[in-house]
Specification:
CATH topology of the largest domain: Nucleotidyltransferase, domain 5
Strand content: 15-25%
Mean pLDDT: 93
Structural class: alpha/beta
Bound molecules: zinc ion
Helix content: 25-40%
Number of helices: 24
Shape: globular
Low-confidence stretches: 1-9
CATH architecture of the largest domain: 2-Layer Sandwich
Amino acid sequence: MRKDGAGLRTALKRVRITARGRVQGVGFRPTFCRALTDHGCGGSIRNTPEGVVLEAEGEASVIEDLVRNFRSMAPPRAEVLELDVEEVEPVGESSFKIAESSAEGRSLLPIPPDLATCEECLRELCCPEDRRHRYPFNTCTACGPRFTITRSVPFDRISNSMDEFPPCALCTREYGDSADRRFHAQTISCPRCGPRLSMLNAEGKKLDRPLDRAAEMLKAGKMLAVKGIGGFHLACDATSDEAVGELRRRKKRPYKPLAIMVRGIEECRSICKVNHFQEEVLLSAQSPIVLLKKRSSCGVSEAVAPGLRDLGVMLPYTPLHYLLFRHEDMPLALVMTSCNRAEEPISTTEEAVLNELSDIVDDVLTHDRQIVNRCDDSVVATFGGRLLLVRRSRGYVPEPILMRRSGPPALAVGAMLKNTFAMTSGRRVFLSQHIGDVSDADNAAHFARSFERFSQLLRLDPQVVVCDMHPDYPTTAFARELSDRRGLELLQVQHHHAHIASCLAENGSEGPVIGVSMDGSGYGEDGAVWGGEFLVADLQGYTRRCHLEYVPMAGGEQAVLHTERMALAHLAHALGPDRALSRMEPLMGKECCRLALQVMEKPRFSPLTSSCGRLFDAVSALLGIRKRITYRGQAACELEACCDAEEKGAYDFDYDGESILLEGTFRGICEDLDASRPRQVIAARFHNTVARIILETCVRMRDETGIGEVALSGGVMQNRHLLGLAVPALRARGFEVLLQTAVPPNDGGICLGQAACALARFGSSSRG
Ligand SMILES: [Zn+2]
Ligand SMILES: [Zn+2]
Ligand SMILES: [Zn+2]
């Protein structure tokens, strides 16, 4: 006790520090407990729904050092977003301890995302002397499942699905030993007390030697369901054409690229071109699927990603994955795609796999740790040394995105395809995991369940609900119903305004900007299908200054599937119906062509569209690359993959008031086709043209408005070839360019834009 001498007492200091951010489930409390004990401090640290609260007292200089170095003292996988420090009266505590968690107060969802296996745990896995040698569920304070096993907050043993596995005496000792690296590890377990691996055949019968059997099955080209962190994967040998072909037949998924898991970073380099930044992302705690340029003759079956230059690659991220790959003669890469039927939610229970997917799956490698929150793998690309998220889910969710403004709690329900939703709490926006196409009933149920779960975890009752303007989106109906039932304020945000707001929000900008929203489709305020939009926008509103010219979508949604109809529409508009017919008849057939032209005359069946995505579809079909799609974005992705990067030529375009006219573009493409120019050249010239349209339209808008900041968003902005042309060109002309990196530019990022608009409308304080 140090409170005896008056001289000493004056040198004592006590502080209360509240840390918010990724501070729970990452070894935060044990790290500080060890450090402060070493420094002879007294006090305590505890989890609260507000974040971690630490009280420490000791010599003034030691406490001042603590406050100064707090962030750098945090464990490697923690991230302190906000820190409140308050000086309080010393009470004469001389020892430091981890105190009981407190569940009171408003939750700020202090649950970390799921974390890939750390190096220490991996070392134990490989060490024959270690008691966790070859243990498929090895975790510690720095790694393991988190969000996907969480039932309630704060993140403790009793609030996650590991509570079914009471720790054995040895584990209990490690848990309580401040010198142990599993001190207060909420997921601590070992082969004696933890979850068990098991292997079931398609009839649900248990088989012995699960890991050996799984490896044998994979080597034999079979389809294996493997229980992971957020759901089941469907796995097969990615190096075997037969196995991949069989998986595609069974899943009825002829072309959509499949993700692969590769044994290690070395093997990854042999399959794909990997730069330093991409390597960092592959090895990160988030461990997402990374889109990488594949090498020629890389050993992976062509059927994994037909017609594309990229492969979606991830590294093992659970001990179970590592153990599978360590098995003798295992292929160096496995297809690891979600175990579901196309577009349905990923399966999370063996019952679902056995009952619903027995025609797809041969055997099931599973375990008895329950998945509480379904969560798909995240998918990312990289652009200019930054992340470009394609799907933000496992590893990133539920980490909040910090806004400049605070406001009343809001629910933003997102769009329809690639749906995610968001809930706000003060300045934080919490995005849900990937939900998918909510026009599917199972996905809609997944949406409703996840919303309930997020409301519970956040302890938030939204006062505002935000949705799209589309009258037929299921999310719009959900928002309206919720607003009516609970008497909530309802805000509708135009789709492309939401895309731009999303980009503004994650860049901490409030605008006004020139918003370039190059997208698939979204409901326009004039009732047309928008998607090639140039807006002047801030978080309060927008004006539409310019857009790609309107053409009819023959048969509405049908024109999305049959891209040849978009080619016909653009040709007919640009060059007249006769030249369109003569060009498209050989590709579509005479009858189809004439019928489509007739349907285009009827506005009821053929809404007008300014969509940039549909323009890419049209060109893809015209070049004979893809005239009918089997997954969203297929025609555009294959057109991008086709580009000759050396080609510098471009086509003409023109302006008529608000409309960008593409007659010159289509005339040029037809001339090039007649001259038998390679389609690689034509595809590249088309990309160059779109980049020039973006640049020239932005220059015109800057001349008119004086605004020099450009925000790029919308699904087309996932096209890295286009970004690689447009972004440097804009910068060279003095524009400040805002890109999306924390959330996807596609509809998976819409909810952030909606949330930001709600905070701008209903929030009060703005921090600079
Ligand atoms: Zn670990
Ligand atoms: Zn144990
Ligand atoms: Zn969109």
